[in-house]
Structures
1.
Amino acid sequence: MTSSAAAVTERPNLVARMIATGLGSGYSPVAPGTAGSAVGLLLFWPLARLHPAAQVAFTLALVVAGVAAASHVARRLGIEDPGVVVVDEVAGMWVTLLFLPLTPFTAILGFFAFRVMDVFKPYPARQLEQLHGGWGIMADDLMAAVYANLLVRIALMVFPAA
């Protein structure tokens, strides 16, 4: 057995697995991406009270940790983009909600806008999946999140009292 074949059969380390799977939400038997997005929304709620610069710092830290964890888990499982890896959805929800007032309306709208953008992956989101390793896993969702953030902003302009 070569060392690369052995690496594929190794179990990912616990910290990488917990980050990559969105605290285990990626193991959901139904819609793991949606479960990861829900975890992302719940984890962002306390961050919403922080200064926007702190929100950005936490989001960047999550993205960096997510890329590393997603790369590690994908490599260990021998799958390019494993379904259990949902840290991209967690980070996507955070980007979706950045610089927005977090209210029940924006939370629900942001959640649905992100899920739609993540499924349809408008240009260039789908093309970003071609990046190597964890970047390919994460980048498409981050782009989808930018679109979702813009959609929520438009909705807030149309319905300012919401």
2.
Amino acid sequence: MNHPSALRSCLWFENDAQAAANYYVSLLPDSRIEAVIRPNDTEPNFEIVEFTIAGAPYMALAAGVRFEHTPAFSIAVLTDGQEDTDRLWDRLHGDGGTEHPCGWMIDRYGVHWQITPRALPALFTSDDREAAARAHSAMLTMKRIDIAALERAFRGE
């Protein structure tokens, strides 16, 4: 394991931890597989994959028991504009993901994602609380976040 952090989030899969980790590292820059660990050849469904997504450490565990992922844990990605938002959204959705309101997506492995353009928290934290509320109301009507629509709502257009 090459990552300096002692902390990492663990994603549990029934099987195919390495396939999931390979998929996740393909989504964002500064992502890579760190290690694949199979400690016991007699348990072919048991594996641990240590990996990094966009500089953040994760671990995928396949242990042959099915636990459902929930929105109580999600991978939140701050994107750098509409093009970046659309690229990630289209990739997750096109690869078998399910769209949900307010920038949420469930990927083909059942993991929950929040795809959030950096503009969104900037609008929500504005000192103009009425404008921030308009932007928030607009966001509640969206699945994929549309930055231009949020900005129009913020301006009252």
3.
Amino acid sequence: MKAYRFDFDVPYAHVDQMRVVYYANFLVYFEMARSALLREAGISYRDMEAAGVMLPVVEAHCEYKQFARYEDRLIILSTCHPFKGPRLHISYEVFRDQTLLTTGYTHHVCMSPEGRLLRPTPALLALCGE
């Protein structure tokens, strides 16, 4: 399975009163990394949704190991796992340099705008190495 890399610097707006990244922002970072992963694979959310394929999050999990702070350069590695029917599992590892800060995953399902489950598109299957 290929890991996709997404790098960015933590903005001041993302830290809390303790001057560390507010915990819920890691889910935002997962979303940013997932969008970059799709773009790198030649898929955009906009085009996918225009074609009638949605990927709503149905489960999300984060495990915090170390703090991140303002202006830290974060590296997020995202890995797509093989589809199980319409269900997609993406795992994430967030690093500052070589230090692992956070791990997590999101589960998605392929569905139509009307809420019908869909088979994954060939592009999505290829993204996961299928």
